[in-house]
Design brief:
By secondary structure, the protein is an alpha+beta fold. It has helices spanning about 5-20, 20-35, 40-45, 55-85, 90, 110-120, 135-140, 180-185, 225-240, 300-310, 325-330, 345-350; strands spanning about 125, 135, 170, 190-200, 210-220, 255-260, 265-275, 290-300, 315-325. The chain is rod-shaped and about 130 Å long. The mean pLDDT is about 90. Bound molecules: phenylalanine. Phenylalanine binds near residues 176, 268 and 320.
């Protein structure tokens, strides 16, 4: 049995030239030089040759084996070098689409907080924040809600199971106003402040209640602040928040003040806007009343001034407090408060 060694060498050399990657080169090495490769087979075939032929062919096969080994070795180096020094095009497919990054967007509650803050900042208010954990004094007593007063029942409260601080029990801020006390204790009038933050009440969660909601409290103290200032301020605010909305459609927003009771304001009012859905006709959103409550407000009670060391004969003040979720629901036509907290991207991406 004899091999055409010249042809074998020519074939192998041509095949090596064609190779473009290390994997195919390895396959080629196995094909020729592997244990059951072409060269090994040829070597085992030598036994069938005549005694004179055997050493000649054996030497030639050995040569060929070495030649192919060198060739493959060289090609290996060559391929490795192209991988290192090659252009980006050799390394990966630059036309392949990348992994796109999901761009986040601002939560509707944050949008509304920012919008309301900027409306009041444009009117000269300062933004002040306070802690979510409050003392009984700031949350109740200083706001003219004495211990054991039945009005404390109005604010069902999360009390904190911790030792009292300066004789004061701690609780989660249960309504919008405690930062009035914190700010007035350390500042002198005139002052105009808004307070974004969170309020906690042990309410059962349903379409319109949550155990936590976001707030904006506002208050202004100076000489001769009047109820008409409160009305003007809130009217301006409602025009800006609601009339520009899709639902408000640029209409003039009608507003009314309903007498109400808050211990920390006198007189007090709940403020409604004419239903922006039915324009006052009466619909399911406004409970057929034609009006939607948006906030509580009033003139700061003299006892609140006394608690912070202001002279109630010298100063008067106005205050108002609102829930952001409620404003956002009316503004965007959202009918379930839970949507704000479920983190469903299909909802959140619409803003
Ligand atoms: N603090 C009241 C609440 O949380 C709202 C309010 C603020 C009412 C200021 C009057 C004046 O319900």
């Amino acid at each position: 049995m004899s091999f055409d060694l010249a042809k074998l060498e020519a074939d192998a050399t041509a095949e090596v030239q064609e190779i473009k990657d290390l994997e195919s080169l390895e396959a080629l090495r196995v094909k020729y030089l592997g244990r059951r490769g072409i060269i090994s087979e040829a070597i085992s075939g030598l036994s069938q040759l005549s005694a004179e032929e055997r050493p000649r062919q054996g030497a030639q096969l050995n040569n060929l084996k070495n030649t192919l080994n060198d060739l493959i070795q060289k090609k290996t180096e060559e391929l490795k070098n192209t991988l290192v020094t090659g252009t980006a095009k050799d390394l990966f497919d630059i036309t392949m689409p990348g992994v796109s990054q999901d761009l986040g967007n601002i939560h509707p509650i944050t949008l509304v907080i920012d919008e309301i803050c900027s409306i009041f900042v444009s009117m000269g208010f300062h933004i002040v924040e306070g802690p979510e954990i409050e003392t009984e004094f700031n949350n109740f007593s200083a706001l003219n809600i004495p211990l054991e007063h039945p009005s404390r029942d109005v604010f069902d409260t999360f009390y904190i199971n911790s030792p009292a601080v300066d004789g004061q029990k701690l609780l989660l801020r249960s309504h919008t106003s405690p930062v009035q006390i914190r700010a007035m204790k350390i500042r002198k009038p005139p002052l105009a402040i808004i307070v974004p933050g969170k309020v906690f009440r042990p309410d059962a969660v349903d379409a319109s209640h949550s155990f936590m909601f976001h707030q904006i409290e506002g208050f202004l103290v100076d000489k001769e602040v009047r109820f008409s200032d409160l009305k003007g301020l809130l009217y301006l605010f409602a025009q800006q928040v609601f009339s520009a909305t899709k639902i408000g459609g640029g209409q003039d927003i009608k507003m009314r003040f309903r007498p109400h009771f808050f211990p920390f304001t006198e007189p007090s009012a709940e403020v409604d806007i004419c239903c922006i859905i039915c324009k006052g006709e009466g619909c399911s959103v406004c409970g057929r009343k034609g009006w939607l409550e948006i906030l509580g407000a009033g003139m700061i009670h003299p006892n609140v001034f006394k608690a912070v060391g202001y002279d109630p004969k010298k100063f008067t003040g106005l205050a108002f407090g609102m829930g952001i979720e409620r404003i956002a629901m009316l503004k965007y036509g959202i009918n379930d408060i839970r949507l704000f907290f479920e983190n469903d991207l299909r909802f959140l991406k619409q803003f």
